[in-house]
Design goal:
Helices cover 13% and strands 52% of the residues. With 134 residues, the protein is mostly beta strands. The protein has a single domain, classed as Cystine Knot Cytokines, subunit B (Ribbon). It starts with a helix and ends in a 6-residue tail after the last strand. Residues 1-19 form the signal peptide. InterPro entries: Bursicon_suB, Cystine-knot_cytokine. It comes from Diaphorina citri.
Length: 134
């Protein structure tokens, strides 16, 4: 058996072992700290608001494969799959800690909170790496 054929059989064996693993791409809860600055029409800072927000994130592993190929220049065909969002959900978040430019906490009903829109993953799946069209 030639060296090339023996090596190709080893690669095929490794690919089939790796492809037996289950994909573990999932939507997981996470927490982020958001800071939003608000400016007036002249560009002066009016207030800075922040909060710790619970959001979803995509995390996990997807099956990727490498196999010998006589068509590709390097002799291998690689198929890479990445875990990322399949759908983004928009929701309104209320930032509850607002401060004036001097760092003083704002307490007036109109200025004490700030609503912002945030997009987060609602579902995650494995997609071919570099393929962003959904």
């Amino acid at each position: 058996m030639s060296c090339w054929l023996r090596w190709a059989l080893i690669v095929i064996f490794l690919v089939s072992v790796n492809s037996e693993k289950d994909e573990a791409c999932e939507t997981l809860p996470s927490e982020i700290h958001i800071i939003k600055e608000e400016f007036d029409e002249l560009g002066r800072l009016q207030r800075t608001c922040n909060a710790d927000i619970a959001v979803n994130k995509c995390e996990g592993a997807c099956n990727s494969q490498v196999q010998p190929s006589v068509i590709t220049p390097n002799g291998f065909l690689k198929e890479c799959y990445c875990c990322r969002e399949s759908y983004l959900r928009e929701r309104v978040i209320t930032l509850t800690h607002c401060y004036d430019p001097d760092g003083m906490r704002l307490t007036s009903e109109k200025m004490a909170t700030l609503d912002i829109k945030l997009k987060e993953p609602a579902d995650c799946k494995c997609y071919k790496c570099g393929d962003y069209s959904r």
